[in-house]
User: What shape does this take?
Amino acid sequence: MTTPLTVRRSNFRRTGFAGAVLNGRLEGPDRLSGQQQVSVPTVRNKDERAVFDEVFLPHMAEAYRLAQWLTGNASDAEDVVQDAALRAFRGIRNFGAVNARAWSLTIVRNTAYSWLMKNRPKSVVFTDDLSPTEQQELEHEGPLGKRIETPEEIAVLREDAETVQQALAQLPPQFREVIVLREISQLNYRDIAEITNVPIGTVMSRLSRARQLLIAHLGNRK
Amino acid sequence: MSISIKDDDELLLNAYCDGELDPVSAIEFERRLAADQALQDRYARLQSLRRAVRSLPRFDVPTGLEARIKSGLDAASPGQAARPRQRSWSFQALAAAALFGAVISGSVMMTMERYGQRKEVAREVVAGHIRGLLAPQPFDVASSDRHTVKPWFTAHIPESPQVPDLAAEGFVLVGGRVDVVGHDPVATIVYRHAKHTVSVTTLPLGQSVSDQTIAGYNVRSWGDSQFTYVAVSDIPAEDLATFEHAFSTASSVPEVK
Assistant: This one.
């Protein structure tokens, strides 16, 4: 029996290029999520509440921050995290004892989008709802259909927190989420692919695209 | 000149910065990087962007969030989630048959009763409001913080409504209570407007109540995709209409009525 909360782990299509990547786990400071995998004993025989406390609660702060980035404000984020906690608890039997952090963040991310769909329907555009041409356009030409060039001459970026935060908040959701998961949650590509339920190749192109958009936005123009 | 950088290079550069290249590709890329000034510029720019994003201040996690999550969960009865998953086929069939029978007879009964109920429902909702006014306070949980009221509902009844904060529109959230309509517990959100109390009772979909006056209280009802709302108050009918508008806008489910 599967619920919508089941983490799908099987659909990492490797594109030709991505095949060169991720052969073998690298060790290093960036491999945070690998190190943080909590090994949790099998769920069946334990009190579900105890399992929930072990699996979801340690990631609550991070879950909240992700929710705030996705919804754009603190009070929506709190609603989302509370909803997500409830969903996580009800689905705790489906937790596969693999990666508690990715599992928890997946639920939060999905809850955030369904919450937004329901409560702020105008603020979300889902790539899945777009036609292939529109998707192509979004991934490669920027959100408004016009190509945003990354000018070669930009060398210095405005780095003050407020400007950066605004620029990030203004990215379309599918670009914002990969940046947040990568830079703020410091997850690796594999985990990001799992959480956002897209192939690793898509994660890579979205990250690259998102960074170009940010650079174009933050570049000092004379 | 430097426009020669291909799409794949951009991806490679990103993967390299993210530490996602396998060792062989990484070394190969480093060699190219050392030889290519334009690539180095891109690398530096990408790294300064990453630095800027990583050094953003972290959002503060609201105090008490964990406690509120836990109290929300205390409600979700553990028994509900803990049902054994595998049953024998014949047991399932039996259960399905029984359920089917129950649904059929239930729906027949409901159709018969519905007519009488409609009036009864409005009366019971008003009765709840009056009882609330007679009690020392018209609510079971007192809070002007919707993040307290909503989890409290979640903890006490199966389907809890959105609890919008309407202070800006002149309706101050004061709390919530559980009323009983028919035999079912339902959520009632309590607001204060000047010195008047407004109760909003949330009924399951499908129950309809017509706008009317009962025992001197104005009753106004509307619905969205989740609930039928019944507002009861002694404020004038126009003000109640304003309230409905504010409430349904704030609970921001677009398909009102």
Q: What stands out?
A: Chain A touches chain B through 64 residues (CB under 8 Å). Chain A has two domains: 27-123, 127-218.
